[in-house]
Design a protein that fits this description.
Its cofactor is FAD. With 369 residues, this protein is α/β, with parallel strands linked by helices. It has twelve helices and 17 strands.
């Protein structure tokens, strides 16, 4: 944008992609506001550990001039993968996923904190839940907030995740259940309290799989280990099993029957963890997901391309944010910038969605395949 009037850019959602977009815009002197429904940065846990890939997430962090600070926090040893035999817990030869060798791990909360700290004071407007947008007829938009207030913007960036409130402005697509459920559990201070389990998991991610069942354990910072039991089942599997999801003992008993015959050292990951279980059915958008360009509004990250959680989503969201900001800085008009961004992002995410679906099918082969 080469005119003296900088467009009013509203990013909806203070996730990784929206924050990278805001950071890169600010580095180049562009005004931007991020609207976030949560009340504060610590309003909820930020999820597990992410591996940040050289060709995507690290490219975005370099554009945000945060790569050195990221490296100071990241855990290169966390990219280790160990494949275990479900029946014996023996370590098997394993190439690991097809990621580049330079993909150090960082907790999502640490990475989000790094991005938030890099923004000018007051950039993020907390406790601002956007319920929808209205076109004002001249390519500009009015954002509607749940408290009845409004804001106007020349560009609205839907960085508001899987259940985006803005997606419906561009597309009729809705996330659908893809047949796979992850049930999450966790261990605190694992090295001290469960040294044998910590040794089993190793420095990064441990995987054991048989048929349409898999057990993953992922090391996070501060000795925390996250465990995921993955399986193919109807979304309401717990109803058929007559198990209440908040009844930890009942969920545990059902999962143990599901993983019957597995080595006891692996089943300890199901038996001995702290706290309850979290049911995480996998939702995905149809792939490819695309839309007819609409002036003044676009999407990034999960709002644009929700795909199976096999290590690409956060990386792509950050790259989307950096690419959109770059286009806004370099193209001569706002509309040219959004079109340039969409022509890059949509084919890339369609390809990534195919790769993620294949990776999940490799981990948990569909019945009869």
């Amino acid at each position: 944008m080469h005119s003296t009037h900088h467009p009013r850019i509203a990013v909806v959602g203070a996730g990784l992609g929206g924050l990278v977009c805001a950071r890169v815009l600010q580095l180049h002197g562009r005004p931007v506001t991020v609207f976030e429904r949560e009340a504060s940065t610590g309003a909820r846990p930020q999820g597990g550990s992410l591996d940040i890939h050289a060709g995507t997430g690290q490219v975005a962090l370099r554009a945000a001039e945060l790569l050195d600070r990221f490296r100071a926090l990241a855990r290169p040893e966390g990219q280790e993968w160990r494949l275990l035999d479900p029946a014996t817990a023996a370590v098997l030869p394993f190439e690991g996923p097809g990621h580049d060798t330079d993909s150090p791990e960082i907790d999502r909360g640490q990475l989000r904190g790094l991005l938030l700290d890099s923004l000018a004071e007051g950039t993020v407007r907390w406790d601002h839940a956007v319920t929808g947008v209205e076109p004002l007829g001249d390519g500009t938009w009015r954002l509607l907030f749940d408290d009845g207030s409004t804001e106007e913007a020349d560009l609205v960036v839907g960085a508001d995740g899987a259940w985006s409130r803005l997606r419906s402005t561009l597309s009729d697509a809705r996330p659908g259940y893809n047949g796979v459920t992850f049930v999450e559990a966790g261990f605190d201070d694992c090295d001290a309290r469960h040294p044998a389990l910590a040794g089993l998991v190793g420095h990064g991610t441990m995987l054991a799989s048989a048929g349409s069942r898999a057990l993953l354990a992922q090391r996070n910072s501060n000795g925390h280990i996250r465990v995921y039991l993955a399986f193919r089942a109807p979304q309401d599997w717990h109803v058929a099993a007559e198990v209440a999801l908040d009844d930890t003992a009942a969920v545990r008993a059902h999962l143990l029957t599901m993983f019957e015959g597995w080595d006891e050292r692996l089943l300890a990951l199901v038996r001995d963890h702290d706290g309850g279980f979290v049911n995480r059915p996998v939702f995905v958008l149809p792939a490819p997901h695309a839309w007819e360009h609409v002036p003044g509004i676009t999407l990034l990250g999960d709002a644009a391309h929700l795909m199976p959680p096999v290590g690409l989503g956060a990386n792509l969201a950050m790259l989307d944010g950096a690419d959109l900001a770059h286009a806004l800085i370099t193209e001569s008009t706002l509309d040219d910038a959004v079109r340039a961004y969409e022509s890059l992002m949509l084919p890339r995410s369609a390809q990534a969605a195919r790769e993620c679906a294949e990776a999940l099918d490799g981990l948990l082969p569909p019945e009869g395949s």
